[in-house]
Amino acid sequence: MKFCIYGAGAIGGLIGAHLARTGEHVTLIARGAHLAAMREKGLKVSGHSGDFTVHPRVTEDPAEAGPQDFVIVALKAHQVAAIAEKMRPLLGPKTAVVMAVNGLPWWYFYGLDCPLNDRRLPIVDPGDAQWKHIGPERVIGCVVYPAAEVIAPGELRHVENDRFSLGEPSNQKTARVTALSKAFVAAGFKAPVKTDIRTEIWVKLWGNVAFNPLSALTGGTLKSIAEDPATRAVVRGVMDEAEAIANQLGITMPIPVEKRIDGAAGVGEHKTSMLQDFERGRPVELDAIVGAVAELGRLVNVPTPMIDTVYALTKHKAMKAGLYQG
């Protein structure tokens, strides 16, 4: 099968490297020094999944790759709308687009049997760019659990975890999502096909909507935030509001909120991706992870005073640092 990874950074590069190692036809879309290094020396992986180097096709221009079986989008959430139209050369009649992107997905309400069916979410898809140029009918949902980082141009380190949960917006176990899962498993990942991918999206988002902005505001790790009574209370308040929104959308969280918080604490002295972005001077995924949840609250008439406060404070900090793209 033909795979194109749009955004071959840490997670995208990890996926592409593993698929290439098993013999799949892989094209990586990248730019700058990272692209140049991969062209010259291939993509080197180290860490959790072992040490190896692969030499997939790499390019900056999607038109060079042509139509694919699967396009895996592994960009920051705020980057995707701007490149959606550029993806057109990759999309054949049956191309599936795997959204390996954090936060609330732009396609969330596609095909849902509810009053919000096909509702668009401007905060995560400005101008409906993704809806128009990618199309929700192409989408396969993906919840990303691995941690990885680019340690040098053309080199990445797989820190931990090897699970990618996959699922159709329709909740059906289709031939295409089954084929994708088999390819991921052959490449060394765990890739369960979920018949309710939105619940799994919510479980991850449930923690991120609280811990990510609080870590950015305080500089604290998951463990320190969860174990301090004052910040834990803020986490609990934010998560209670998020759960109320999820419930209004027909989602029942599979674990109690305190257990979810304890699970985050158990990860240890880990810096969230949002805190790491602040420290490295990179734009933050604030709207898809926090602002979008507040927007959903307004759609379903659930008050979100805690989420609104945390969002406003983090947005102000990001804007002051030049790290907010709204």
Keywords, separated by commas or semicolons:
4-stranded mixed beta sheet; globular; 326 residues; alpha/beta; 45% helix
- The biggest beta sheet, please? 7 strands, mixed
Distance between the termini: 36 Å
- In terms of DSSP E residues, the strand content is 15-25%
Unreliable stretches: none
The total strand number stands at: 11
Number of discrete helical segments: 13
Tell me, rounded to a whole number, the average pLDDT: 96
Helix content: 40-55%
Q: Order of strands in the sheet with the most strands?
A: 5-2-1-6-7-8-11
Given the C-alpha coordinates, what overall shape results?
A: globular
Structural class: alpha/beta
N-to-C SSE string, H for helix and E for strand: EHEHEEEHEHEHEEEEHHHHHHHH
Describe, in plain words, how this protein is organized in 3D:
Helices cover 45% and strands 18% of the residues. The chain has helices at residues 10-21, 32-41, 62-65, 77-83, 129-133, 175-186, 197-218, 222-227, 229-248, 257-267, 273-280, 286-299, 305-320; strands at 2-6, 25-29, 43-47, 52-54, 57-59, 68-73, 91-99, 139-144, 147-152, 155-160, 164-167. Strands 5-2-1-6-7-8-11 form a seven-stranded mixed sheet. It contains 13 helices and eleven strands. The chain has 326 residues and is an alpha/beta fold. The model has no long low-confidence stretch (mean pLDDT 96). Helix 4 (77-83) links the parallel strand 6 and strand 7.
List the helices and strands and how they pair.
Elements: E1 2-6, H1 10-21, E2 25-29, H2 32-41, E3 43-47, E4 52-54, E5 57-59, H3 62-65, E6 68-73, H4 77-83, E7 91-99, H5 129-133, E8 139-144, E9 147-152, E10 155-160, E11 164-167, H6 175-186, H7 197-218, H8 222-227, H9 229-248, H10 257-267, H11 273-280, H12 286-299, H13 305-320
Helix pairs in contact: 7-9, 7-11, 7-12, 7-13, 9-13, 12-13
